[in-house]
Design brief:
Layout: H1 24-29, E1 36-39, E2 45-47, H2 55-63, E3 67-70, E4 78-80, E5 85-86
Antiparallel strand pairs: 1-2, 1-3, 3-4, 4-5
């Protein structure tokens, strides 16, 4: 895994997950997810690109919050949805 220095890192904030029990949108509509991602700008928890509805990506683009971190136990990588790179 190559990690890039990304200009969007300036948007990263200390956050608490808003819905630690799962993807906010999937919980609301009763859908399932594969893996979870935590928005590092606001704390939104969304489902990954392998999930049917890809809420983390949709949140990143709709709100201008480009960097998410894996919200899976034992994982600590971060991804920039704008530049499509690990950061």
């Amino acid at each position: 895994m190559t990690i890039a220095i990304d200009p969007h890192l300036r948007l990263v904030r200390p956050v608490e997950p808003l819905t630690p029990q799962g993807c906010a949108e999937c919980l609301r509509i009763g859908s399932s997810w594969v893996h979870l991602r935590l928005c590092l700008t606001c704390g939104h928890v969304g489902c990954c690109d392998s999930s049917p509805l890809r809420h983390a990506r949709a949140h990143a683009h709709a709100h201008g919050h480009p960097i998410a971190q894996s919200f899976e136990p034992g994982e600590d990588w971060r991804w920039c949805y704008v530049d499509e790179v690990y950061v």
